[in-house]
Automatic annotation (TrEMBL):
Dihydroxyacetone phosphate binds at G181, G209, G210, S211, N230, V231, N232, T233. Gene3D superfamilies: Aldolase class I (3.20.20.70). This is Class II fructose-1,6-bisphosphate aldolase. Pfam families: F_bP_aldolase. The active site is at D82. Keywords: Lyase, Metal-binding, Zinc. Zn(2+) 2 binds at D104, E134. The lineage of its organism: Bacteria, Bacillati, Bacillota, Bacilli, Bacillales. It comes from the Bacteria. It comes from Paenibacillus montanisoli.
Amino acid sequence: MPLVSMNEFLPKAKANKFAVGQFNMNNLEFAQAITEAAMEEKSPFIFGVSEGALKYMGMEYTVAIAEAAAKKSGLPIALHLDHGSSFEVAMKCIRAGFSSVMFDGSHYGLEENIALTKEVVKAARAMGVSVEGELGTIGGVEDDISVDEEHASLAKPEEAIRFYEETGVDCLAIAVGTAHGMYKGEPKIHYDIIQKVTDAIPVPVVLHGGSGVPDEAIRLSIAAGVGKINVNTENQVACTNAIREVLAANGSVYDPRKYLTPARNAMKAVVQEKIRLFGSSNQA
Ligand SMILES: O=C(O)C[C@@H](O)[C@H](O)C(=O)COP(=O)(O)O
Ligand SMILES: [Zn+2]
């Protein structure tokens, strides 16, 4: 199966109240772990690739790995640019084979964010590629760039509704209290904002910063209208902890397969648990 746009599964997610996981791809082992977990769960999923990860893996390898995963699994998989910073980056990804892009204009004023996102939607739609937009500022560390809680700001429902109406994005990330990276305490999620936006627009709300959010908070977010959830840090932590454990037990190991296999298994377990929690098992 070729890579698909998020519109292959997000409308179904919104209608049937489940969420599709965006699991960030940082290297081959991440891609294998995510794909194996999704195959066992028969779940659609999204490979999220940040600009930093793209620089690390290289465009050709990234697209080739995602295409190989789609071909091997037969699952509906979207290859999605995560937090794309410009029209140019989005177009470069689409030309290389990405089936979905996020344009993150959240650091611009509302008018400029709308205008820039509209341009991306117009170009992407012509090529059958789905688009995610973002409104409000999500706290934490995203692709090595840190936004402290003081500068994080919640999305305003009326602005989010207007943003959707004017841009026509396929899903909308809004700041509702989650943050990128692990939490010190528990995140305070504003379900009322999710619900107000969900009731007024036909596309799902996206929850960024999915790592470390308690299961019940995830369930309540999905019930309020979240249809796509991004997870990266939990996989990074699982991967690195597994490697640390192997090397701590045997410092003379030098074959990467000896520590990357447990790392891959640990990430697969994380993804499988998330897929079950999100309710997307057997939705492929
Ligand atoms: O940091 C990245 O490279 C990706 C994240 O921004 C992703 O979009 C996301 O929201 C995942 O959040 P996390 O699970 O808290 O890492
Ligand atoms: Zn994010």
